[in-house]
Write a structure and sequence with these properties.
putative 2-phosphosulfolactate phosphatase, four-stranded mixed beta sheet, five-stranded parallel beta sheet, alpha/beta, 22% strand, 10 helices, 235 residues, 11 strands
């Protein structure tokens, strides 16, 4: 019987045994959703970097540069983390260098894991089907907001837990996440409208991004970290 844990914030990763676990990085609004969408739309790879300055180093090397801070595109970069920037005509055959407020930080802090994959509502069933075939412990890492808990990432973690077929020993955070998901499941959009990050994005005029990120099972691809970049998992 494996263990499944939820890390409610990147600030808590040091409390988890990531070296012997599969880590699923979650940043629903919007980084992990955009990563999944970009890989599904033919991006050769996505290189997550922690800092804007690191992203800038890749300029003039043929990469698309994506940088987001506080929900907005950083000046001087091609785009941010809106999923509508990761459409096929823009990213197919390209490598993207990406830095975001929360999601890329969570990936960097998870790098020592046995395996790092990226989850979103867009690839929920594909992700859970793959996880159900694995034998290792699983840690669902919520990117949160600037090291704080957030609602949407935790609800997604609960959705994953609820769909896993194998019996897993759950920590208290996993039990709480599943309970939140079951509360939200009948009207996910309405439930997550109350989240703080949803309010931030609405203030920026990107309600369409929120709606897009809450679509379920429109993708089959799963991004996996190989070396310094996310690529499509072969399964």
């Amino acid at each position: 019987m494996g263990k499944i844990s939820v890390c409610l914030s990147p600030a808590l990763i040091h409390l988890h045994d990531i070296k012997n676990s599969i880590v699923v990085v979650i940043d629903i609004f919007r980084a992990s959703t955009s990563m999944c969408y970009g890989i599904a739309n033919g991006a050769v790879g996505i290189i997550p970097v922690a800092e804007v300055s690191t992203c800038a180093i890749y300029k003039d090397h043929g990469y698309l540069l994506a940088a987001e801070r506080n929900g907005e595109v950083v000046d001087g970069f091609d785009f941010g983390n809106s999923p509508f920037s990761y459409v096929e005509e823009k990213v197919k055959g390209k490598t993207i260098v990406l830095t975001t407020t929360n999601g890329t930080k969570a990936i960097h802090l998870s790098k020592e894991a046995k395996c790092v994959v990226v989850g979103s509502f867009l690839n929920l069933t594909a992700l859970c089907s793959w996880l159900n075939r694995q034998q290792d412990d699983i840690i669902l890492v919520c990117a949160g907001w600037k090291d704080n808990f957030n609602l949407e990432d935790t609800v997604f973690a609960g959705a994953v837990i609820h769909r896993l077929e194998a019996q897993h020993t759950k920590d208290d955070a996993a039990i709480a996440a599943e309970s939140l998901y079951l509360t939200a499941a009948d009207n996910l959009h309405q439930y997550l409208e109350q989240s703080a990050h949803s309010a931030r994005l609405k203030h920026l005029g990107v309600q369409k991004d929120i709606d897009f990120c809450l679509q379920i099972d429109i993708l089959q691809s799963i991004p996996i970290l190989k070396g310094d970049r996310l690529v499509a998992l072969e399964y």
